[in-house]
Design a protein that fits this description.
By secondary structure, the protein is mostly helical. It has one helix spanning about 15-175.
Length: about 180
């Protein structure tokens, strides 16, 4: 008879535990691989959805950048036009003030020349009056001088005649004595 039995050998307790652990290990390994594959797939799908959202966000960001650039450009253009308007108004005002100052200066020069002309006319009139008064005064002095000279010569003759009469009277008196 053979020592080999046709019945399957009964395994011992430790062998059963070992097989159970091996099957658990294999199942765990399979589950881990499946989980790893699922996690990879999930990560890929999340990356795809995020990439789509990134494109949307990038598109929105570029649109926002364009809008901001346009608004900044519009603000700069508006500021430039306002500055140009202010400059034009300032130039106009400066020209008006310059013209007004020139007009006032011309009026002041004209007034000064009028005053100068009036003063010259008045000075000529005063000079003419003084000349005529001087001439009449000279004539008057000359007439008085002539009269005084004639009175002086008359007085000299009169004094000379008196002196001559006194001398002759003195000579007679001396001779009579």
């Amino acid at each position: 008879m053979s020592t080999n039995s046709t019945k399957p050998e009964e395994k011992g307790f430790f062998e059963k535990v070992k097989e159970t652990i091996e099957s658990l290990w294999d199942d765990t390994k399979d589950n881990a691989e499946e989980l790893k594959d699922k996690a990879g797939d999930t990560i890929d799908s999340v990356k795809k959805s995020v990439a789509g959202k990134k494109e949307t966000v990038a598109h929105k960001a570029s649109a926002a950048k364009t809008t901001v650039a346009h608004k900044a450009s519009a603000a700069a253009t508006k500021a430039k036009s306002v500055a140009a308007d202010v400059k034009a108004k300032a130039d106009t005002k400066a020209k008006e003030i310059t013209a007004k100052a020139k007009t006032e200066a011309t009026a002041a020069k004209k007034e000064a020349s009028d005053v100068k002309a009036k003063a010259a006319t008045k000075a000529k009139a005063v000079t003419a009056k003084v000349k005529s008064e001087t001439t009449s005064a000279k004539k008057s002095v000359a007439a008085k001088s002539t009269a005084a000279k004639s009175n002086e010569s008359t007085a000299k003759r009169s004094v000379a005649a008196r002196v001559g009469a006194a001398k002759s009277t003195a000579k007679r008196a001396v001779a009579a004595k």
